[in-house]
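Recall the central idea of this unit: under ordinary conditions, the amino acid sequence of a chain determines the structure it adopts. In this exercise we apply that idea directly, starting from the sequence alone.
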Amino acid sequence: MTHSKHETERKYEPPSGGLAGLPDLTGVGPVASVTATGPEGLDAVYHDTVDLRLAGSSATLRRRTGGPDAGWHLKLPLAGDTREEVWAPLSDDVPEALLELVLSRTRGAPLRPVVRIRSTRAVRQLRDAEGGVLAELSLDEVRADATAAGGGRPEWGELEVELADGVHARLLDAVEKKLRKKGVVRADSPSKLARALRDTGVGDVGVPLPPAGVVAGSSGSYVLSYLREQVGVLVSLDPAVRRDLPDAVHQMRVTCRRLRSCLRSYRSVLDRRVTDPVAAELRWLAGELGAARDQEVLRERIGAALDGLPGDLVLGPVAARLRVWDVSREEDVRSRTRQALGTPRQLRLLDALDTLVRRPPLRAGAGRKPARTMARAVLKEYGRLAGRMDLALARPSGGSRETELHEARKAAKRLRYAAEVARPALGKPVARLGKHAKAVQQLLGEHQDAVVAQDTLRRLAVAAHGAGESAFTWGLLHGRERAGAEARQRELPGVWRAASDPALRAPLEH
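Accordingly, the structure predicted from this sequence is:
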């Protein structure tokens, strides 16, 4: 059994005089009173791989006793000051559920105790006028020990302010403003663990150095920065996909496409003999995720269309049949996703991406200026899209045109992502082209969704008819989807004219 919550907090150096040196926080924002609790003793043993893969990705795993939430705590980074904390009951060994959630980071390497941190904590609770807790301000006296012999035994103090669930982060800003006036400053270490690892001598997890041979401001530096960011996103999404969190599958699939597109578009920067096999594996992973994503899109699309119909147009047990269809497929697609993430093939892909970022197979284009190499790559993707659009628009309506439109949609994505990589280097001109590519992609995406929905609705109609139910409603929804697809096709020439305006490309051609 596990449960999770979001934790938003900031850490500070403790004031001289301890809690007595803190300002009175009554009246800061909605804070009406401050109450004291504690002290309490906390004892946490942090686990990681030998080479500190969890700490290196800003994740922590600990077994903690003492306090109201004793148990195993896995903390995963989110945006800003927020992390997700997944809790599991106390046990001697790391719970299997948590081992699965860190697999994208550990790649199966064994976990072991690396450092023990004991804290004596005094707490001040910031409460609103009704007595509800808004935040907790805690002062910890910390002692750390390396689990292996020979390490140091540092001691230090730490002040932490943590928001209660549902409280807006602006309260943190208001409290920090008050603390700064008393000379209280942010801690120089992002977490107790990072400081303990450093000060005990176990290891210092800092910002990785750029790969050798990559010159700042070169095309290679921008491409590798983008790849590094997207690899981090792919790894961080893994736990969310495993727990079937909203939109996680979609985001991971998009990340696979971004990575694959970057590798294909910037072959002048990175050697394709190395990157093509990685791109092929990214395509495999995106395909395994595709069934779950397609199911999600269809369920939401058809469900919304059904909800929008007047009651007199809903004939038969339509909602029930849609639920049966969804449930019958949902477990299969979820199982396929979980199996893909648990395979050695997926772990090898993550290892290959790490290697690619740390030891990139640079080509001559990596050392050139972005105005030359990256602009050329973006324009090449534009040419590919233009060719696809010419083919699609020349086709008569029907299945062959739908196929060409789908290919054009994929080309628009590649242009959009190529522009996304180049935007930090080339600025507004490439951003404008990418914006128009996105408009083409979205229109063609709506068209493709309508085409796929028509096929699903036809099969639902056949099943309803075979069961002696009315197929009228399914036929009505099918007709609406067909009309929607035809409307998108009529809109396409105008959207493409805007995207193919030579003025958009002119700044990149000089």
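The chain has a mean pLDDT of 93.
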